[in-house]
Amino acid sequence: MFVRILCLFGVFSFVSLQYVPPYTEDCRTGMYPPSGPTFGGAVTWYTINLDLPPSKRWTELITDKKNDLIIMVQAIKDLADALVPSGRLEELIDQALPLMIDTLPYPFNEEMKGIATASGVPLGEVVLFNIFYEVFTVCTSLVAEDPEGNLIHARNLDFGLFLGWDKKNHSWVIPEKLKPLVVNLDFRRNNSTVFKSTNFAGYVGMLTGIQPNSFTLTMNERFSLDGGYIGILEWILGKRDGMWMSFLTRSVLENATSYTQAQKLLSDTKLLAPAYFILGGNRSGEASIITRSRTHNLNPLELDVKQGRWYVLETNYDHWKMPLFLDDRRTPAMKCMNQTTQANISVQTVYDVLSTKPVLNKLTTYTTLMQVSKGKLESFIRVCPNPCMPW
Fold it and tell me: Cellular component GO terms, alphabetically (predicted)?
């Protein structure tokens, strides 16, 4: 049955039963430092100067990445044309979304205007590019504590499920177009680092970031009937009492002064869409999974080394429920973490876990490793060689 479903989506004409979920492989070892067929390249660093006017902050980066951004936006438009052949969806993007820009909070709206100016991409398409991640991101994030009490926060950013399958190259179209846009950003004010992030050029929200010596933060999508589509529609219709997820994470990384304050903001702020926030602090025991509905924090899970919970790990399913068996990245990831043991946990072994299929999959664009005590963030473009499940 599953093979037939995949065929309907144009993913495969045939799938060996050996690779039908819940397919897993033996836990990888020796994958760090990255090399070989799963390593897609290093990630370039750019500085975002917060002292500049918002419309000027992204000019240098977007000038470098202009062509890649144009290609990515065109891929999104091609998908829109395929879904709505009449062209009305593209008309909405070009005519209605620009009208939405001034309803978005400052400084994000001004930054998007600056990106449109620097790239030549129409403003509506820049808005679409920034909205896109509110509803299509699937990920694996974890925070682990080593025997000395140091915290390691890591994630795979997976994106683009069912957004165009390239039969020739056996890959999803959108993730492959996104990889050239992956950048590391150093946000600076008064010539000092405020926070660092792994991001997509042209995207002003944050999915992955570190405030050095203070806290680390990643965001994963949470599937829900009361999801991002409804929140975005309500926003367009004038109900704007919720916060965009990635704008909230950007604001927290930029303005929160402690793990405790970040945790409160992520737990209590009303959202446009459900989400998982994975938060790490700078002291032993400071890590949590914040499972959010649009209005409430549900069943929070904290690191508790004394009770044997030396790591927390989140994919895209509530931690108190079983994940969908077709998309169970949690079980193999936890298996590899437990097999590693706390005594051997390190940046190197965490990277091994995130390099094990299906934690690493066809949707994985990048892996980020963060060490709060060192203020360190490093990222790598990822490739999942065949055989590899599409998620």
Answer: extracellular region; lysosome; membrane
Is residue 139 among the annotated active site residues?
Answer: yes
For residue 294, give the 3-state DSSP assignment.
Answer: coil
φ/ψ of residue 339, rounded to 5: -70, -35
pLDDT digits (tens, 9 = 90+) for 116-173: 999 999 999 999 899 877 666 779 999 999 999 999 999 999 987 666 777 777 788 8
The Cα–Cα gap between 206 and 364 comes to 17
Q: How far is CA 362 from CA 132, 157, 172, 174, 261, in A?
A: 19, 11, 7, 11, 36
In 3D space, the residue among 204, 289, 215, 303 whose CA is nearest the CA of residue 256 turns out to be 215
Cβ–Cβ < 8 Å for 365, 175: yes
161-162-166-169 Cα dihedral, nearest 10 degrees: 30
pTM over cut 0.70: yes
| pLDDT at residue 9 greater than cutoff 50 | no
Report the candidate in 222, 220, 199, 221 with the shortest Cα–Cα distance to residue 209. 199
Is the backbone peptide bond immediately before 387 cis, with ω within 30 degrees of 0?
yes
Q: Which of 139, 336, 384, 388 is catalytic?
A: 139
Phi, psi (5° rounding) for residue 142?
-150, 155
pLDDT, tens only, 86-119 = 667 777 778 888 989 999 999 999 999 999 999 9
